[in-house]
Design brief:
Blueprint lengths: L2 H21 L4 H10 L2 E12 L8 E5 L5 E4 L4 E7 L7 E4 L23 E6 L5 E7 L3 H6 L3 E7 L8 E10 L15 H5 L7 E4 L6 E5 L3 E8 L6 E4 L4 E7 L2 E8 L3 E4 L4 E7 L6 E7 L6 E9 L29 E9 L7 E4 L2 E4 H6 L4 E3 L2 E2 L8 E3 L3 E8 L5 E5 L5 E3 L12 E4 L4 E7 L4 E7 L2 H5 L3 E7 L1
Bound molecules: CU-O-CU linkage and copper (II) ion (CU).
Length: 471
């Protein structure tokens, strides 16, 4: 789907409503004020859905959120009612959004799960424009594997100049020989102690090799999200000119040219600008190369363009979001986070639920990883900071596995990893085995914020802690 086309259709649909506003003689400031007071209401239904992926077998049963995208306006209060029509309790986390803590959707920490048949309303005002996602945060390893997520776009107030705006949501499903999700293998301890659950079916926007329509010679914004449980994806953009303009929703101060290939950990997002060559036509593949076989994720469907010049200026940067300035600030709070455990990690014991346990006893409790010697959420936070204080956490990956570390409710900058340019904001960061990096951020909304690995099986098996922000 082309988001630009959707926006156009939406505006066309609301043309009648905007007319009376103009007639009533509201000044621009008046209109802005009226818009400010408005609430954007949305309804999300957690429900079973089906995908027609295989012609030889019946549709595949999934769980979904009743739509394929959630679009919100920046700075306008949102009220999102979530109805649960699933047989299991659930919750919705707004990954990357800086929301009040009680709206964060972390079941068991910031709210009770939403029971089947009941609903829950989330209220927050999107502070930052960009590419985010909403996903279940209850039994996440199962609910994410079933597809319980939704890309979330917060639109910039001034539209960014591109010809097309496409979404590329990558997912990695495990299906069995009857074309259904392989649910029996959920919870496999072998996978939880290794790289997490890997699938055998790649989809883009929940479809098999969809076509993204673009004109030859056009410029496209490409919003990429890795929604897989654990697979780190690598996209090959086939020699296309491309620039990163945002990471995890936050604009880069200067667009960064890519070398045509992009590695994306689970839950990370990249917004790219891609120039389609003027001499392209027909179908052009976008490859995903994380496994031994090169897979085709999607195709560009290139249609003739109307005399666009082949030579373009480099893209401009997106307008910055109101993220706090960190430059020149000394940390007020510091902590160290030592990641241990997993296969070949040699972890002998760890504390789980206030009890020291041997590796074997941990395994009985489905725990295999630890942060600072504690498997899963400790009673006390990793650190406590006052809202507004500068926080620095040194994260040491003392395991044989890569991890994608995610902090709720905040964006941070990192140093120590040369995979990312300095100064880029993240809410999720990929760490290779034995890598060490430091994240810095300003403590935001008061409350309890999770810090966990987004290889969701690792989170379930122990890689989770939390920080406390006080008023
Ligand atoms: Cu994307 Cu704790 O989550
Ligand atoms: Cu991990």
């Amino acid at each position: 789907m082309d988001l630009k086309r959707r926006a156009f259709l939406r505006l066309a649909g609301t043309g009648i409503c905007t007319l009376p506003l103009t007639i009533s003689g509201l000044t621009q400031a008046g209109q802005a004020a009226a818009k400010k007071q408005a609430v954007q209401q949305r309804l999300i239904t957690l429900e079973p859905e089906q995908a027609e992926w295989f012609s030889q077998s019946p549709p595949t049963d999934l769980w979904g959120m009743g739509q394929d995208i959630l679009e919100l306006e920046q700075h306008v209060p949102a009220e999102i009612t979530v109805r649960n029509r699933l047989p299991d309790p659930s919750s919705v986390h707004w990954h990357g959004m800086r929301v009040p803590n009680n709206m964060d959707g972390a079941s068991g920490l910031t709210q009770q799960a939403i029971e089947p048949g009941s609903s829950h309303t989330y209220r927050f005002t999107p502070r930052d424009a960009g590419t985010y996602w909403a996903h279940s945060h209850h039994n996440t390893y199962e609910q994410l594997a079933r597809g319980l997520y939704l890309p979330l776009i917060v639109e910039e107030s001034t539209p960014y100049p591109v010809d097309h705006d496409h979404l590329l949501v990558l997912d990695d499903w495990r299906v069995n020989s009857t074309g259904q999700l392989d649910l029996e293998s959920l919870g496999s301890m072998h996978e939880w102690t290794h790289g997490g659950r890997m699938g055998n079916l790649l989809t883009v926007n929940r479809e098999i090799t969809p076509r993204l329509q673009v004109e030859a010679g056009s410029r496209t914004r490409l919003r990429i999200l890795n929604a897989a449980n654990s697979r780190i994806m690598t996209l090959e953009l086939n020699g296309l000119q491309s620039w990163i303009i945002a990471k995890d929703g936050q604009p880069l101060t200067k667009p960064l040219k890519t070398n045509g290939s992009l590695t994306i950990a689970p839950a990370e997002r990249y917004d790219l600008i891609v120039d389609i060559p003027a001499d392209w036509q027909g179908e052009q593949p976008i490859y995903e190369t994380s496994s031994k076989t090169q897979l085709t994720g999607a195709f560009w469907q290139v249609i003739p363009g109307n005399e666009r010049s082949a030579v373009r200026q480099d893209p401009q940067s997106l307008p910055a979001n109101p993220v706090p300035v960190l430059q020149g600030k000394q940390p007020d709070q510091q902590a160290q986070l030592l990641m241990t455990g997993g296969a070949m990690g040699g972890m002998r014991s760890a504390v789980y639920r206030n009890t020291r346990m041997s590796a074997q006893k941990l395994s009985v409790n489905k725990q295999a990883w630890a942060f600072n010697g504690v498997a899963n959420l400790p009673d006390t936070p990793l650190l406590s900071a006052r809202s507004g204080e500068t926080v620095e956490i040194e994260i040491i990956n003392d395991t044989r596995w890569p991890h994608g570390m995610h902090l709720h409710g905040h964006h941070f900058q990192q140093h120590g990893s040369d995979r990312y340019e300095a100064g880029i904001w993240h809410d999720t960061v990929l760490m290779e085995k034995n890598e060490k990096l430091t994240i810095r951020f300003q403590a935001g909304e008061p409350g309890k914020w999770l810090l966990h690995c987004h290889m969701i099986e690792h989170q379930a098996a122990g890689m989770a802690t939390w920080i406390e922000v006080t008023a």
